[in-house]
Amino acid sequence: MAFDIEMIKAVYSKFPSRIEAARIAVGKPLTLTEKILYAHLTLGEANSPFERGVSYVDFNPDRVAMQDATAQMALLQFMQAGRYKVAVPSTVHCDHLIQAEIGALADLKKANDKNKEVYDFLSSVSNKYGIGFWKPGAGIIHQVVLENYAFPGGMMIGTDSHTPNAGGLGMIAIGVGGADACDVMAGLPWELKFPKLIGVKLTGRLSGWTSAKDVILKVAGILTVKGGTGAVVEYFGDGARSLSATGKGTICNMGAEIGATTSIFGYDEKSEAYLRGTERGDIADMANTIKAHLTGDQEVYANPEKYFDQVIEINLSELEPHVNGPFTPDLAWPISKFAAAVRENGWPSKLEVGLIGSCTNSSYEDISRAASLAQQAVDKKLKAKSEYTITPGSEQVRFTVERDGFLGIFENMGGVVLANACGPCIGQWARHGAEKQEKNSIITSFNRNFAKRADGNPNTHSFVASPEIVTALAIAGDLTFNPMTDSLVNEEGNSVKLEEPSGLELPTKGFAVEDAGYQAPAKDGSKVSVLVDPKSERLQLLEPFKAWEGTDLKGLKLLIKAKGKCTTDHISMAGPWLRFRGHLDNISNNMLIGAVNAFNLETNKVKNQLTGEHGEVPAVQRHYKKHGIGSIVVGDENYGEGSSREHAAMEPRFLGVRAILVKSFARIHETNLKKQGMLALTFANPSDYDLIQEDDAIDIVGLADFQPGVPLTVVLNHSDGTKNEIEVNHTYNEGQIGWFVAGSALNLIKEEI
Ligand code: F3S
């Protein structure tokens, strides 16, 4: 059904020659990460090396995956590209919009009603353009991808930060914004700064209470939430080969918590077993023919310090189970030290809820090991003292673990099975009483535990651990319980101890599913209509942005001179606004409302130069737009840092801002602005920022001769009749100037078809 064998064959056919060329170009043995990256270069075979952490390189990913929240704008944009079909295999997964409240069936039904228009749009647009569509209830994007699409040596981008989960099967899988997904689906290359490489050597073997999750909890403690930034984390060694493919997926998934670009394991017997177990033996057969290319070179792993930028070694035989938190995933506590930390810090030791599953930890292995503890609880007459929920990662896993009796065991212990969806992991949790904002503790087998993430309550102390530890602590109802050493008193007043968990990596009877929830796209999508209600508040078809008028831009009103930090969140706030992420007009009402106005140091209060009154930024800009007057936004250092959210570039463009002039840009945002046909400019002399006055009318001149590397001129016409002429720089190349001229990158793509 779901994978594309011909595509994988074509990818593998390039590996031998491209990797050989890369080895010559780099002049040394290669890591696995380098092999896959060099095998996916847009330029073909490399003839010179790329500098890690410096070179920007174009790649051709094999696949795109999108979740339902971010897919909306990605696909609305894709519709503008004028293509009949996506250029690479792509899928949409409906997982983020289902709220957990009562249990799987009731919650799913409610979500289907509430989000009908979004699902109808995503289903119809997928059907039309050749995109695989996974319905609500089919599962969480990363689990479904691992089961169906991930393949060793592949390269994928996904519009979700935990896309690296597929690294567990040896794929370079990277989280991106919707604009990048749109480009790749339209057949354009995808640019990435060539990453630095962190090697993690795993020795020894896991045993007893320790699981793969503890490896990444330990790594997060070592590297912290920023330690992986700009780097790919590559795991290797005997210990790595001993981990199940899904355990590897867990580790790669949570690499996002240390800021890593992605994480990866090499192809081995466990990967082969998982491919065969998920009915992809033909991919395993193909991978076996190029096995040597699907791991790093032996010399690299023998002397890792010579080839990685940083090396960490972890002995799995000595690794303890960990609990990380609260409020951050890098506060790592071995279980032997956790109880003392709870007491010393005054964290609520009573455990209210234990939640297992999610995209991070819902494999057959995870569920079967957790169920072995739940069974013990029942057998030993222990009742779970905390509430307990189970979120399966996919319908295939859910169906199989139900068939094998595990869900029944959880229910016997008082557990509630939630829909196969993100639910509490993304704050889609109607948690009873959360609005009272009481101090309390929960523990999950998820990946993120920032304040408010699960239930919106800033006083919920959220901890992350393996499903086994979550289950044991939920049985005890107490965070200070250490199942390795402590006993519990059962309903009959006897002291009992939990034995070590046990489980199976793969089901002995194989996976099974009745309805996986997959909708294949139409063979010929030309007659399929995309369903968008013109009256919808949540969705709006995009109109192409206007092409450049061919003249200099004169008399632009200063909309705002932003002072200090101005991240994508200040430019396009999240929270309640996310509801409108598929409706550009509605979401534009959050444009720059978080930016601080340098003239009054207030947010969302700027002078309307036409009326002289102060007003909210979006309202003032809409006033200029109504009068056909362009405007300009001025900013400080690192403008647009934060996420790759394309709305932060689309909103100003949509509302008629013509240029963003700043001291410096965050690079992704700068590129996003260029893609939307905006002028992204920097002060040649940063102190010229101080020359900008509140009533300025601003001209941008020299556009008829807009060329790479040649500065433009900006004239500041002050209200007292004086002027300043300043030089501004830009980083547009020929192609990007083409985007500006055409009005957007998508307009240009359309022209080229
Ligand atoms: Fe969903 Fe949470 Fe994973 S939001 S994709 S289950 S990190």
Automatic annotation (TrEMBL):
Enzyme Commission number(s) of this protein: 4.2.1.3
The protein's name: Aconitate hydratase A
Keyword Cell inner membrane: no
Entry's family note: Belongs to the aconitase/IPM isomerase family.
Cofactor(s) in the UniProt record: [4Fe-4S] cluster
Keywords attached to this entry: Iron, Iron-sulfur, Lyase, Metal-binding, Transit peptide, Tricarboxylic acid cycle
Pathway(s) it belongs to: Carbohydrate metabolism; tricarboxylic acid cycle; isocitrate from oxaloacetate: step 2/2
Domain Aconitase/3-isopropylmalate dehydratase large subunit alpha/beta/alpha: 34-477
GO cellular component: cytosol
Reaction(s) catalysed by this chain's protein: citrate = D-threo-isocitrate
Molecular functions (GO terms): 4 iron, 4 sulfur cluster binding; aconitate hydratase activity; metal ion binding
InterPro entries given in the database record: Acnase/IPM_dHydase_lsu_aba_1/3, Acoase/IPM_deHydtase_lsu_aba, Aconitase/3IPM_dehydase_swvl, Aconitase/IPM_isomerase, Aconitase_4Fe-4S_BS, Aconitase_4Fe-4S_dom, Aconitase_dom2, Aconitase_mito-like
Enzymatic class: lyase
Record domain Aconitase A/isopropylmalate dehydratase small subunit swivel: where: 558-685
A biological process term (GO) from this entry: tricarboxylic acid cycle
